[in-house]
């Protein structure tokens, strides 16, 4: 039911009128979003598009084709897809693990410096981390110089990109996880301690299973962030070998001439598949987590 | 196991949770920590468990200071108000968890869990998850989990307050029975004085973090040392009448009030005479209707609350004084009925209104 | 264990215990501490340092190998390059840059218009509308409004590029031609419009979600009472809803100001600061361009870092304001286990 409008008194025509006006305004507001997606879908399966109309070679409406999807036979696309997937999975595991460890300690352990860490997490959560890309470049250069380690996590490696992305999303993850831990019964944890478990076992065997829904929400969020990442991979990688899908798509858009928009749209839709799957099946979780205080972007 | 608390204190910044509590619990004794919510009784229990660290003072198990021994090495079992069962584990896994952590072999785990579960009457539920059990069953599992590791000390934190009244009665008896059979020293936190009275060997009454009294239920009931205990112990609670003056009248003592004048036995009256205005306490069950012709104190029935076996009758005495007493429902008292009441003066209590301490028992 | 307790004074054991508890907690914190140090603390300090040097492609080397340290670096085989400590000259250069006034104006214009029109303005309208209608429908519209945010930036911008494209490809032209508007290359002719709209469509959802959950938590009695008193919808919004969501409004405004100030990803992808010279170049994009993305392969890290560090200072100030004004600290509950 509507939250703030319906009362006995205003039932009837005027209320219906006003509520249908709200619908009209909302539908108008989402037109640009729907148009964008409509174009993506139409362009993907057509020879070329003028506006939203698919056109064939002679300029007539029509020209439906699957030719744009020929890229799926290109090994390169699978290489960049794999990179995207690796970054996304690294985000899920890295942010999930580090922030659930830190979130647990901040929520439920008494230790020297706890308040300081909490304030730090909050400040970093609001802090515009993209401003640090310039110096992170040099940090990655330094990691590159480390023997062995540098080949995996240094500059121009998928590992390096993942490491930076995990770090920049940590404050958000910690803050969210801490919130989930805050809601777990203290008695349950006390019972486990009396039963003889160490704090580490309590965390892993007793508390973590309780916050599975929260973990899932964080996993979806970090997966999407990693999967969609453009700026950081674009900044810290060179060449298509280590680039991910968004960087590759942007490369197709800006470096190939003439730009084959329809083919790029197909790659774009290809990348959107997991996102749309998550969108359709986990809307509620997504809405919750994004209002939980995301950052970056805008 | 003997437990001793010495000058135990717990503060959070300026907030005082427990204020200088000292008491001793004998081996296999059942002690209740009784007090209103927020009085510090659960905090005391959690310090004994090793969950909270005392700000000062000492906790001794069998004469040994255990302040810095972590909960897992204290050999205690604890039952919580919320049961605190692990919802993702089955009943068996819940009960076997302490054994698993002690690295007890698998088949011995099974044997011990089955034994305790059968004793608790939940042997057929071992494969269920806690969410599929009723409140009473969950509490049995929680008790079983506490017992399965053969603790030397059992701690109960309001274990029955989430159960319905009937089940509470059953479980009350059951816990008492198990404790006696096994002879495990037990500390039982409750805000329900009936629970404390019926189960405990001794009761520690706590208020505002301070120990008010530590005695057997009978002592607390018959000889309340403070006004708080008098009002807190006993159901329905004791009537407390302000502005009573006790004077000596030859060999006798008279308690005088705007609404009445009572003859008080000398061994009680002599402690109170010429102390100025005091508070007189009398339990509802020590008040009865005056027999015909007997000279009772006159009043008018204000409200009648049927309790089943008795009626709890609130009577208005002159001077806007109200007192409760228990009457036979067969009398069918109605609001407005004039009554004459008789006090059993052998049982009256007197308190100093300033110190709130008993004038009879020290 | 028991023997230890008997033999040692209680205070010594206590101290050792609390140290052990802190160490245990620090173990939980250690992955975070490592990453935060590597990618937040070190970069902030490094950014300040680099902004005080002449580090660029011409002088490329380890930024720490300056002055006397250079010989040490070279003996260790670390590339020192020609990095020199130049004091505040990057900052002087920044403020006397020919395009500084334009970039500053652009930044203020961009932040202010996106914020008022979309991130707060439209967000509030959407929150009011979606809480006004049937609950499920409101939920659906909010979900759709989340799409721009979860769409990868590259694909999202690709859509807008096609919407704003020249005839015959542009979708906007296709819609406007029938009503008599001349087809044009919108992205080139009205770049600001699209910079603000693309950012705004992403930005609006954040405020929308925060505001609508705030509106949903307003006790219904207040609104009922106002209705009974005969208030109109607009009066209810102005006199009841807005005052009651004052804090979320303030939070979204400050938070989004900082986000807008620092973010540049969508502008980078849409116009890359153009068309032409610095038409839509904003402060954060300038820092990025100078330091990390140049057409001539001349990365001026020192100079770019100066641009960037100004934003870092603003970011730190804003972050501390959040902590004080919104008192997040007071929401933090104390752990209810001391654990020995």
Quickly list its features.
heterotrimer; A: 298 residues; mainly alpha; B: 362 residues; alpha+beta; Rossmann fold; OB fold (Dihydrolipoamide Acetyltransferase, E2P); 2 domains; 6-stranded mixed beta sheet; 5-stranded antiparallel beta sheet; 9 helices; 20 strands; elongated
Description:
Chain A has 298 residues and is mainly alpha-helical. Chain A has 13 helices and two strands. The model of chain A is unreliable at 293-298 (pLDDT under 50). With 362 residues, chain B is an alpha+beta fold. Chain B has helices at residues 41-49, 91-101, 106-120, 135-147, 165-182, 193-199, 217-222, 227-232, 266-269; strands spanning 3-12, 15-25, 30-34, 56-61, 64-65, 76-79, 153-157, 185-190, 202-207, 210-215, 239-249, 252-256, 261-264, 277-282, 287-289, 297-306, 311-317, 321-327, 338-343, 349-351. Chain B is elongated and about 80 Å long. Chain C is an all-alpha fold and 340 residues long. Chain C has two domains: 34-97 and 295-329, no CATH class; 103-293, MetI-like fold (Orthogonal Bundle), CATH 1.10.3720. Chain C is flat and about 80 Å long. Chains in contact: A-B, A-C, B-C. At the A-C interface, helix 1, helix 2, helix 3, helix 4 and helix 6 of A face helix 2, helix 5, helix 6, helix 7 and helix 8 of C.
